[in-house]
């Protein structure tokens, strides 16, 4: 379990008992629209079952559930780079819409980044945020990430070719 600086909020491994709550939260177009195409829409029970199994056996990547006040509220993770990028992790998270705007994502992002630099091999974490998602950019900034630049027309999402904004945090930041 990874504690956050927000009371009653922590990160933990995914559990089979999370499946129903995961489907209820993740089957939301607003969430899908801000994540890579690896995140399906609609989000089904089969997707949840696959994810829970995969997430718990994905080392050196790390994927965990975000829990607030005893309930599953989202997920956060780091996909490990390979080869020359083996010390870089692709950082991402999502939060169920009923839990937006409560500081949960920022607390989870801070805790996960700190964990990655303390207990995992990562020297650099990077997160590319779609141009329309200013709230997510702010979450990363609150977690100590710095805006590094705009990747022009780098993402095709929801029928549009859009920019993404790269943020990164280094172990020494």
From TrEMBL:
It comes from the Bacteria. Gene3D superfamilies: 3.40.630.30. PANTHER family: ACETYLTRANSFERASE-RELATED (PTHR43328), N-ACETYLTRANSFERASE DOMAIN-CONTAINING PROTEIN (PTHR43328:SF1). Signal peptide: none annotated. The lineage of its organism: Bacteria, Pseudomonadati, Pseudomonadota, Betaproteobacteria, Rhodocyclales. Keywords: Transferase. It comes from Niveibacterium umoris. InterPro entries: Acyl_CoA_acyltransferase (IPR016181), GNAT_dom (IPR000182). Residues 9-171 form the N-acetyltransferase domain. SUPFAM superfamilies: Acyl-CoA N-acyltransferases (Nat). This is RimJ/RimL family protein N-acetyltransferase. GO terms for molecular function: acyltransferase activity, transferring groups other than amino-acyl groups. The keyword Transferase applies.
């Amino acid at each position: 379990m990874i504690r956050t600086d927000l009371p009653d909020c922590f990160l933990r491994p995914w559990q089979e008992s999370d499946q129903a709550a995961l489907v209820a939260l993740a089957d939301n177009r607003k969430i899908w629209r801000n994540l890579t195409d690896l995140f399906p829409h609609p989000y089904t029970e089969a997707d949840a079952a696959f994810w829970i199994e995969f997430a718990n056996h994905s080392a050196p990547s790390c994927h965990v559930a975000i829990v607030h006040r005893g309930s599953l509220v989202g997920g956060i993770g780091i996909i490990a780079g390979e080869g020359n990028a083996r010390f870089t992790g692709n950082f991402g998270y999502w939060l169920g819409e009923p839990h937006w705007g409560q500081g949960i994502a920022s607390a989870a992002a801070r805790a996960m980044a700190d964990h990655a630099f303390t207990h995992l091999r990562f020297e650099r974490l990077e997160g590319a945020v779609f141009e329309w998602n200013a709230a997510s950019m702010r979450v990363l900034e609150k977690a100590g990430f710095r805006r590094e630049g705009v990747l022009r027309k780098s993402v095709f999402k929801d029928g549009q070719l859009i920019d993404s904004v790269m943020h990164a945090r280094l172990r020494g930041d």
